[in-house]
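quick q for whoever's on today - can somebody do inverse folding on this one?? i tried earlier but teh output was garbage lol. tokens:
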């Protein structure tokens, strides 16, 4: 299947505020690039299961776990690719003690991912790299980007956007690169099967304008990565680029258990009332409305009383499930957290409470 995402593209602060995880919670979470698993783990849940149909997403997350356990902070950020490193393969040799033979064989077969920095090896991240390398310089200079990253207020960001970003060249290049045809080079085609959005490039253009003008750039490491390919570390409150969080993870990462299955297959085999919190990323982009409703019904069955589930919509609206009365959307919190989301390309964030007495 390949690594689709080498980092997680959902905001961990939104996730943690939504689920409000405690040491009494049993959590099921999509793995993706692993960052949100780590964010959940920092809240010390009783149990945490990471699930992903793509084994290679589990490989990269377990490599990050091995690196957290083995390396110091400076070595870790160099190994991932956030800082330059003379020999990442030598760091891999140190890490191997915490990997299985199967995992070692995978990374030996993909040594270029290691030498380039694993944070850049995902299909989506490589797509962004092409934009950053070949197209972004036609829009704004590296000096201009660095100036933008230093801006200290939204007012300054709006002024900067109007002066330097808002050009015919930016609009033209963006609409070509982020068209439906273009985006398929960064995301699997099946994510578009149920999308009825007619003008995808314009949709994402408006989302990007919002991000550049309405989300503080100094705290938005997602946009920093898009524009520079880096996140300056240490980065306060990041799941592992915050030094304190990194040290906490060293003592707790063994707590995560991994399941290489589809969510649909896995939950149908589980007994009732197993989990209290669910992070399902944007998996419903891949489902028809009926499949979505059936899966939500299974999740309600699997949940404990007063459980919570959160997920994101990108291009496919999946938030109504009339058949299931046990799931109650928290509209106020959902909308409030969506307005604070640093990942700009999602259309909706959904938090639902699970009430089994309905």
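ok took a stab at it. sequence:
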């Amino acid at each position: 299947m390949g690594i689709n995402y080498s980092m997680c593209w959902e905001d961990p602060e939104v996730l943690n505020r939504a689920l409000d995880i405690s040491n009494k919670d049993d959590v099921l979470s999509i793995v993706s690039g692993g960052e949100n698993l780590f964010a959940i783990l920092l809240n010390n849940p009783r149990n945490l299961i990471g699930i992903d149909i793509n084994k290679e997403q589990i490989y990269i997350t377990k490599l990050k776990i091995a690196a957290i356990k083995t390396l110091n902070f400076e070595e870790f950020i160099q190994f991932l690719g956030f800082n330059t490193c003379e020999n990442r393969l030598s760091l891999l040799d140190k890490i191997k003690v915490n990997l299985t033979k199967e995992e070692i064989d995978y990374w030996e077969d993909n040594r270029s991912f290691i030498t380039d920095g694993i944070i850049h090896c995902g299909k989506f991240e490589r797509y962004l790299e092409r934009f950053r390398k070949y197209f972004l310089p036609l829009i704004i200079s590296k000096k201009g980007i660095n100036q933008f990253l230093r801006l200290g207020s939204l007012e300054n960001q709006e002024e900067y956007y109007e002066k330097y970003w808002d050009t015919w060249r930016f609009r033209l290049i963006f609409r070509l690169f982020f068209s439906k045809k273009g985006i398929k080079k960064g995301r699997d085609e099946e994510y578009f099967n149920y999308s009825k959005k007619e003008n995808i490039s314009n949709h994402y253009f408006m989302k990007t304008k919002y991000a550049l003008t309405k989300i503080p750039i100094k705290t938005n490491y997602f946009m920093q990565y898009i524009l520079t390919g880096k996140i300056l570390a240490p980065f306060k409150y990041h799941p592992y680029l915050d030094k304190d969080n990194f040290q906490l993870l060293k003592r707790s990462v063994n707590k995560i258990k991994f399941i290489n299955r589809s969510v649909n297959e896995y939950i149908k085999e589980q007994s009732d009332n197993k989990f209290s919190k669910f992070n399902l990323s944007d998996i419903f982009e891949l489902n028809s409305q009926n499949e979505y409703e059936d899966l939500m019904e299974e999740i309600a069955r699997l949940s404990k009383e007063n459980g919570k589930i959160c997920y994101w919509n990108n291009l496919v609206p999946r938030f109504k499930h009339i058949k299931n009365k046990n799931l109650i959307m928290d509209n106020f919190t959902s909308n409030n957290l969506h307005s604070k989301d640093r990942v700009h390309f999602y259309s909706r964030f959904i938090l639902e409470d699970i009430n089994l007495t309905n």
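fwiw The beta strands are 26-30, 47-51, 256-259, 275-279, 303-313, 327-329, 348-354. also Residues 131-228 form one domain. so keep that in mind when u check it
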